[in-house]
Write a structure and sequence with these properties.
The protein is mainly beta and 297 residues long. The protein has helices at 246-253, 259-275, 281-291; strands at residues 3-6, 22-25, 33-37, 44-49, 54-61, 66-73, 77-86, 91-98, 103-112, 117-125, 129-138, 144-153, 158-167, 173-182, 187-196, 203-213, 219-228, 233-242. It is built from three helices and 18 strands.
Length: 297
């Protein structure tokens, strides 16, 4: 059985770093099932993706309308595509929660026209082998893309996220925040690319990742990348990777907390940074249940 290359880095780097792409077996999935989402203005649509079949969801948002789509991906072996087209002035929010899966291949493609806005929120909490490939193309003037990504990887789990924001339109803007926790031989790669194309005058892009390492068995690879073919742009990136600072540990121990509790609280804080962005009580309640308790525990 042949392998296929996934999550390809836009500009390759040294091969020994093993971040240029991921290889997975080509399982020759059956014909992809296409579902067109018909969302009315102001409507919230919930999708339960629990079938191990190749699926594609297509959403077109008319000018001036606003919609929200919430996807729970729980299929044992999922292969999901979500395609979003935003007309001028349209707004959309896409929330994806990936959990409890043996293997997930998740693909998101978004096309933004003049003044369109897309908010993307993703939580990866429990998958054994997850690949997410997100591409936002900001074609129109003043288009805006925001991404908040949270993850918890443990028990030898693998997570590879490849996010690409392509700026074609003038005065477009991207903000990317990723935050997560790694433990127990976890293997995680996050590739975040902001690409300023020629003609994207006045465009802005910012990305940041905050990674908490709970033990020395984990493997973390963070690849922030800014590509620039236009002079009049603003771009920045940064990453914070490591364990809890000894001064913080000392302070919290002095308040009567043991080390296990300290790390549990710190790990949950990383995820809560993303969970707070989800303004939907039903979804938040389910996430708390998956994580094993509520905020008071």
């Amino acid at each position: 059985m042949d392998n296929k290359k996934l999550n390809i880095l836009p500009v390759p780097t040294f091969g020994w770093l093993k971040v240029n792409y991921e290889e997975r077996e080509n399982e020759n999935d059956n014909e992809r099932r296409v579902t067109k989402l018909n969302c009315s203005d102001g409507e919230k649509t919930r999708l339960e993706i629990n079938e191990s079949a190749a699926q594609r969801y297509e959403l077109e948002v008319k000018g001036g309308q606003s919609v929200e789509v919430i996807e729970f991906i729980t299929a044992k072996r999922a292969d999901t595509q979500t395609a979003i087209k935003l007309e001028s002035g349209a707004r959309a929010r896409l929330i994806q929660v990936i959990t409890g899966t043996e293997r997930t291949i998740n693909n998101v493609r978004a096309f933004l026209s003049d003044g369109a806005e897309l908010e993307y929120i993703s939580l990866n909490i429990g998958g054994e082998d997850t690949l997410s490939d997100i591409n936002a193309r900001l074609d129109g003037r003043g288009a805006r893309f925001e991404a908040d990504i949270g993850y918890k990887v443990s028990n030898e789990g693998k997570l590879d996220i490849n996010l690409l924001a392509e700026h074609f339109g003038k005065r477009t803007e991207t903000r990317i925040n990723a935050s997560g926790v790694l433990s127990e031989k976890a293997d995680k790669t996050f590739k975040g690319t902001i690409d300023f194309k020629n003609g994207a005058v006045g465009a802005k892009g910012k990305e940041k990742e905050d990674v908490l390492l709970l033990d020395e068995t984990v493997r973390n690879r963070t690849v922030p990348l800014i590509l620039c073919a236009e002079e009049d742009v603003e771009g920045s990136h940064g990453a914070s990777i490591g364990r809890i600072d000894e001064r913080q540990l000392f302070y919290m121990r002095s308040r009567g907390l043991d080390e296990q509790t300290i790390y549990k609280l710190a790990a949950r804080a990383r995820l809560d940074m993303v969970i707070r962005r989800i303004d939907d009580e039903q979804t938040n309640a389910r996430i708390r249940q998956i994580l094993g308790g509520n905020d008071d525990e």
